[in-house]
Amino acid sequence: MSGHKVSPVGGRLGMWLFIATEFLLFGGMFLLYSMYRLKNPADFHAGSLELSRFFGTLNTCILITSSFTVALAVHSLSENKKNRAMLFILSTIGFAFGFLIVKTFEWSEKFEHGLYPKAAVLMGKPKGEILYFGLYFMMTGLHAVHVIVGIFVLSTVFVMIRRNRITADHPIVLENAKLYWHLVDIIWIFLFPLFYLIT
Q1: What's the whole-model pTM score?
Q2: Radius of gyration over alpha carbons of the chain, in Å?
Q3: Less CB within 10 Å around the terminal CB: N or C of the chain?
Q4: How far is 171 from 76, CA to CA, in rounded Å?
Q5: Rounded to whole angstroms, how far apart are CA atoms 118 and 59?
Q6: Which pLDDT does position 16 carry in this prediction?
Q7: Maximum alpha-carbon separation in the chain
Q8: b/e per residue, 67-104, with b = 16+ CB within 10 A?
Q9: Which helix (H) or strand (E) holds 91?
Q10: How far is CA 92 from the centre of its chain?
């Protein structure tokens, strides 16, 4: 088993490098959004009125709670409470699915109203609104992909804890999974006000 252990220093460094590249990726998108918004304030305002603050707020609450449960999983494992750690991992996965379900309902509404890229209804609107919804689907879509990846990561961590490949003495994989999930949460914390609150 020792041959399969991840080096704590190497594992943490690799994870922080990955997080840095993700911040660069989304940072570029946030910059692009800001530039287009400055050029098309009225159209971006009109686009934001089409989004549901209820869905956005609900998903924000879901992700904040999920970050709490994944942190509790790490804490539980550090106290050698394996079953409790697994329960908190499952809870986090459940919240992740909840987020995707809410997002599916929200996207479905936009498709029903023709507010998606290349749709005839959207293409008939001002250029700024077309840009707004293009950015909305691109940025929230990429974030949703990160949530799906997170589900696979957390599911793998769950199995590894169950098989004692992640333990209180060797928690680095779980800790990295926690960092990844916090990244997913932080990205949404930026997306939420940009699309739902700033009008």
Answers
A1: 0.91
A2: 19
A3: N
A4: 11
A5: 26
A6: 87
A7: 62
A8: bebbebbbebbeeeebeebbbbbebbbebbebbbebbe
A9: helix 82-112
A10: 12
